Amino acid sequence: HPFKVEVARSMEQRAKGLMCRQTMARDHGMLFTFDVEMPIHMWMKNTYLPLDMVFVSRAGVVTAVAANTMPFSEELISSGGPAYAVIELNAGVAEELGIAPGASVIHPAFHH
């Protein structure tokens, strides 16, 4: 399924993410990339939208999905192991499309 994703590469872009946005089209998302595979921790501070967080390896393989995250929560959301990137989608989209560990992600940020 194709998505239009904004890419958050810099520390500033990653820190802001989708904070303060009140709407996002169903086929849009945000891709956060990091320098190396490592455990990743995200949060929902100042984020209005419930999100699915899809954790992805450097090879473009989904390693974990945190579904329906809680808006405004400061609770850490963990990748549960090493990951290279996180794709934030509207809550429910991952389940709706069958995005789960083992699924492939195609984007220039990943090495296939």
Strand tally is: 5
**In order across it, which strands form the biggest sheet?**
1-2-5-3-4
Largest sheet: 5 strands, mixed
Quaternary state reads single chain
Structural class: mainly beta
Per the principal axes of the C-alpha atoms, what is the gross shape? Answer: globular
Return the average pLDDT rounded to an integer. 95
Radius of gyration: 13 Å
**H/E element order:** EHEEEEH
Q: How many separate helices?
A: 2
How much β-strand is present in the residues?
35-45%
Task: Give the proportion of residues in helices.
Answer: under 10%
How far apart lie the N and C ends? 17 Å
Describe, in plain words, how this protein is organized in 3D:
This protein has helices at 11-16, 93-97, and strands spanning 4-8, 28-42, 51-56, 62-66, 77-90. The two termini are 17 Å apart. Helix content is 10%, strand content 40%. The protein has a five-stranded mixed sheet with strand order 1-2-5-3-4. A hairpin with a 5-residue loop joins strand 3 (51-56) and strand 4 (62-66).
List keywords for this structure.
single chain; 112 residues; mainly beta; 2 helices
TL;DR?
This protein is mainly beta and 112 residues long.
